[in-house]
Amino acid sequence: MFDHVSIGVKSLERSQAFYDAALAPLGYERLTNFGNVSGYGAERVGLWVGEVARPVAPDMESGLHFCFVAPTEASVDAFYAAGLANGGTDNGAPGVRPDYSEFYYAAFIIDPDGYRLEAYFKRPE
Fold first, then answer.
1. Global pTM?
2. How far is 16 from 111, CA to CA, in rounded Å?
3. Taking the alpha carbons of 87, 90, 93, 98 in that order, is the dihedral positive or negative?
4. C-alpha–C-alpha distance, residues 88 and 54, integer Å
5. Which residues of 43-82 are buried (b: 16+ CB within 10 A; e: fewer)?
6. pLDDT digits (tens, 9 = 90+) for 92-113
7. What is the pLDDT of residues 34-77, one digit of tens each?
8. Cα–Cα distance for residue pair 20/32, rounded to 1 Å
9. 3-state SS track over the chain
10. What is the pLDDT of residues 4-39, one digit of tens each?
11. How many CA atoms lie within 13 A of 50 on its CB side?
12. Residue 123: how many CA atoms within 13 Å on its side-chain side?
């Protein structure tokens, strides 16, 4: 449905360090930089991260979050660990989410600007 998503952050340098590390285990990388914007994806940009004067204020009750597809359970684990090691905070350790499905393996973190992120792998049925 979406071609891409753009988010505004306080510090592009801080966000680059976070997203470079957290997205790498999922097979995504920084594909482009220009001015105060970086683009992340696998073969093409799907996430734009730009330094802006007024980023959206974090609101844990808004329901807003972004979910990244993961190729393996191990990559979900690595996303979680790398995110925490690079300025993110815990919002749900890696594991099966039986409330969603017995095949739903995910981890949740919050980036340095308060965006809620998820990495998800669909376990074989």
1. 0.95
2. 11
3. negative
4. 20
5. eebbbbbbbeeebeeeeeeeeeeeebebeebebbbbbbbb
6. 999 999 999 999 999 999 999 9
7. 999 999 999 999 999 999 999 999 898 999 999 999 999 999 99
8. 12
9. CCCCEEEEECCHHHHHHHHHHHHHHHCCEEEEEECCEEEEECCCEEEEEEECCCCCCCCCCCCCCEEEECCCHHHHHHHHHHHHHCCCEEEEEEEECCCCCCCEEEEEEECCCCCEEEEEEECCC
10. 999 999 999 999 999 999 999 999 999 999 999 999
11. 11
12. 15
Calculate the CA dihedral of residues 38, 40, 43, 45 and round it to 10 degrees.
-70
Q: Pairing state of beta strands 104-110 and 89-96?
A: antiparallel
Displacement of CA 94 from its chain's centroid (Å): 14
Amino acid, res. 68 = F
Supply 27's token pair: 């097979």
